[in-house]
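U., I forgot to send this yesterday:
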Amino acid sequence: RVSNYYVAQGRAIRRVVALYDSLEDLITENDRRFDLEEDAETTIDQDRLQVGYMTFTHTLRWFHKRAMELEYDDYAPMLKMLRQGSDAARGDDTSKLKVLISDWVNRELKPDPPVDPDDKHSRGFTNDACGRLLCPSELDWTNPDVKAGIRDRADGYVVSDLSFPAFVYEKYTAKPDDLEDGLFKGKLLLQAWSSTVFTSPSSAKDVEGDGDGADVIQNNRRAKKSFNTLKVKKHVAQIIHMEKVTPRSIAYIVCQVRFALSSVTSWRSVDGDFDYVQFWRTIVDFFERPPGREARRRTDKLLEWWTRKVFGRSRRDELSQTAKDNMSVNALARQRAARADAAFDSP
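Result:
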């Protein structure tokens, strides 16, 4: 039972903590910092590992206490089981998205011929629909020269992790003069996050590019009814009590969707000129290392948008006290209190 618990808890690690960094590296970096001077300099990579450790202990709140209690002979197997769970979850998500991505692309873009759910070799840039979604956002896939250049890996058309693919953008289109506008609002990302990884399969059917996703919670409640013959397990958001979308979970989904659209048949960290490790880091740093206060405000707003879309959360908690005071329920309470006071004071 204990081993099953560790494996189940470990399923969150690749998804919300670190897709490529090992759990041992996160722990080692945290331990290293205990010996540092307070003003010691650290690198970006070290800071990313440390945030990863903090995210890990926040996600699995029991870990620190348990790790302090265990002897090494019990501690090492615990880490191994956590790692097994994390790698298994990543593999499960990859397999599920291989099929689901083809269905979503076929429904939305209606390619002819449609994307084959079983054949990865026919995806990537050889497939017109997948190519459109994978195309670097600074290029125009509808231009025949761009298609030919990308397929031939010609100079000026090399696809690398230095370009955001079109699918990460709202309506799969970037604005050259404002590349942050619509970034990480692609419909496929929302569908992938909602359906297979964190909430329920039925959630993806109701994810669109606008609105606040207020009906997602109800969809999750109906999920079990959609699978009468299947045993429905808790999704990872329930297991770790996840109530909001996080930067690293978005980075994870972007990498998973990119792989599902590609023609590569087995999970790897490098696909030709595209480095998934660096790409994951780029997305994480976009959220965790904004260049200023305004950039931080925009990323926070984007995360709030994601949370409303996925969890269906209302904006009630965001209301200012002034706004609450001016609403009719509170206004009525003040009026009734004022009338009661006036009646008490009258002769």
